[in-house]
Amino acid sequence: MSMQYPLLFPYGEDGYHDELMCLPVSNASNQRQKVTMLEYYAYRLRDRPNDFKTPLRCKRLTQAYFVDGYCSVETFRIAFYCKPSFQRKYISSSFSCLADSVSKGITSGSSVGQRIILPSSFTGGPRYLYQNYQDSITICRKYGCPDLFVTFTSNAAWPEITEALSSIPGQEPSDRPDIVNRVFKMKLNILMDHI
Fold it and tell me: How many CB atoms lie within 10 A of CB 164?
């Protein structure tokens, strides 16, 4: 990404790559050797008061970097789930894919391809959504239908947000969605404890 964002990487630093190594930790017994893509972006997007290199001071460019980082991590996760070694757990043979395609009425060979099954652990996938639906139906069956429909919205003028934004002059809440989301989640947890 350093070629895509020259303002964020002015010296041509390396972005994420598969051989990025973890720093050794003396008290870790079972330590991984390599940094994951998610850990890399979490490190890059962390605000450090004495380090001006963080991309959090670039307003709209920061938001584009957030989105590109998210898309990179999701693409990496989907590529992992598409590996044949992972898919063998869910598909018994390639014949079952062909039989499913024929049963759906797909008879031309051009539209028959490899089916990729995402597990329920993949956030946002069809199995994940179905699993959450099943969980909600089970909760309703056990405890009855819900009595309340509660909505909760964020306020950009919350003191926690304005205090966090005061560390960098000229920033608006729209420039730092990470702070707004973090404060919203904190207040949502407090609300859920009260309900």
Answer: 19
The DSSP 8-state label assigned to residue 22 in this structure reads P
Query: Nearest-CA neighbor of 56 among 180, 193, 189, 194?
Result: 180
Which value, in Å, is the radius of gyration of the alpha carbons in the chain?
A: 23
pTM, entire model? 0.72
**Could you tell me the two tokens for 73?**
């991590």
Q: Which residue's entry shows tokens 């707004």? A: 180
Q: What does the alpha-carbon distance between residue 175 and residue 61 come to, in Å, rounded to a whole number? A: 9
SS3 21: strand
Could you report the per-residue pLDDT of 82-103, keeping only the tens digit for each? 888 777 776 654 445 556 666 6
SS3 label, residue 34: strand
User: Rounded CA gap, 180 and 191, in Å?
Assistant: 16
